[in-house]
Amino acid sequence: MQANSLLENRGDRAGQLPFTLQDLRAAIPAHCFVPSTARSLAYAALDFGLVAALYALMATFPMWWLRPLFWFALGTMFWALFVVGHDCGHGSFSRSKKLNDAVGHLCHSVILVPYHGWRISHRTHHANTGHADNDESWYPINETKYAQMPWYERLLRFHLPLIAYPIYLLKRSPGKKGSHFLPDSPLFHANERRDVLTSTFWWGMMVAFLVGLAVWQGPLFVLDCYGVPYLIFVMWLDLVTYLHHTEADIPWYRGEDWSYLKGALSTIDRDYGIFNGIHHDIGTHVAHHVFANIPHYHLQEATAALIPVLGPYYRKATVSIWPSFFRSVRQCYVVPDQGSPVFYQRPTT
Fold first, then answer.
1. Domain coverage including residue 307
2. Does 161 sit behind a cis peptide bond, omega within 30 degrees of 0 on the bond before it?
C-alpha cells in the first residue's frame, strides 16, 4: 500500500504515525550524528581542487569542441560546493559554528549564493516541510493563488523551473515577500541582521570580482569561464530541489493535521547514478529531513537503518530522473484550497 493511502486510511490524519521521532533516532547508529571536521574539510578541499583542475584543463585544452564538457563539469562541481555549504548551514560540517560559517561563506559566495540569507530561509523550509501553506521551498500553489498569478510567474514556476533559483534569491517564491539579500526581509529576525549583511557583502564582492574580470578580459571570457557553468549549477540545484518534494503522490498537510515528522516524510529519495558521490549523496533526502544534523557522508548508513522502521512511509523513486521530472512538470500544478492531506493536481481553471 502506498504511503499516501496509509495516511488517509489509518487514522494518521490526526497526526498519529506508528513510530516517533525518538524511535527513528534510536534506530540510527550514534556515530552518524557526529561530524568529522577533518573528513568534512577533505570533501571541501577535494571539490575546490577539482574546480581548480578543471580551470587548468580549460586553459591547457582551449579547443571549442571541449567547451561543453568543461562547462558541464564545472557547473556540476559548483553544485557539489553548494552541498558542502549546505552541510555548513545545518551545522553538520563541524561542531564549530565559526568554521561552519567560514567554509559556508567560501563555498556559497563563489557561486553567488548569500550564505546566511539562504541558511535562514532553508531553516524555515526544514521547520515547515510538507506544510501546504507555510513551507518555503517548492511548496504547492493552491487553486485560488494560481488563478491570481500573473503570466510571468506562471511561466517561471511551472514551465521554466530549472532557472528559478536566482529569482527566488531576489524575491522568493510566488505569494511570499522578501529577499535573501536584505536584512529587513520578513524572512529574518532582528538579531540576524548582521549575518544577512555579512553574506550580502561577500556576495557583492564576488559580483565585483566578476565585473572586474569582465573589464579586464572581456564579457565573453567571463561568460565562458563562469557564466555558463553557473547556469548549469542553477539547473542542477533547481532540478534536485524540485524533485525532492514534487511528486503527485506526496501528501501536503495543513493545520493540526501537519506535524514535523509527517512533513519530514513528505519527501523522496532519488538515485542520480554516477553523480551520487559527486553531489555528496544529496539525493538521500528522507533521512536528511528527519535529522538535518547528519553529515552527508553518513546519510546512506542512516537511511539503511531507518528503512525497516519507516516501512511503507519511506519513499524512493522508482522512475529515473528525467522521466520523473517531466511527469511532475506535467502533473504537479496546484493543490485544493482546503483540506488535509492534499495532493498535487492539474488546475481546474
1. 3-335
2. no
Cβ-contact 344, 298 below 8 angstroms: no
CB–CB of 196/118 below 8 Å?
Answer: no
| Residue 349 lies inside a defined structural domain of this protein | no
Look at strands 141-142 and 334-335 and give their pairing: parallel
Number of domains in the chain: 1
What is the C-alpha to C-alpha distance for residues 100 and 90, in angstroms, rounded to an integer?
9
Q: Using CA atoms, how far apart are residues 222 and 120, in angstroms rounded to an integer? A: 30
Query: Nearest CA to 75 among 262, 257, 240?
Result: 240
Residue 18 amino acid letter: P
Average pLDDT over residues 41-60: 98
Per-residue pLDDT reduced to its tens digit, 226-278: 999 999 999 999 999 999 999 999 999 999 999 999 999 999 999 999 999 99
Distance CA 2, CA 239 (A): 24
Contact 100, 88 (CB under 8 A): yes
Cis peptide leading into residue 18 (ω within 30°): no
Cα(first)–Cα(last) distance of the chain, in Å?
Answer: 32
110 falls within a domain: yes
pLDDT-based confidence at residue 81 (cuts at 50, 70, 90): very high
Nearest to 14 by CA among 229, 227, 262: 262
Residue type for 32, please? C
- For residue 127, how many C-alpha atoms fall within 13 Å in the half-sphere facing its CB? 8
Residue 6, C-alpha cell as written in the block:
496509509
277 located within any domain: yes
List pLDDT tens digits, range 83-112. Answer: 999 999 999 999 999 999 999 999 999 999
**Cα 267–270–276 angle (5° rounding)?**
130
Q: With CA atoms as reference, report the closest residue to 31 among 285, 280, 297.
A: 297
DSSP E strands in 85-184: the ranges are 141-142
How far is it, in rounded angstroms, from Cα 160 to Cα 329?
A: 10
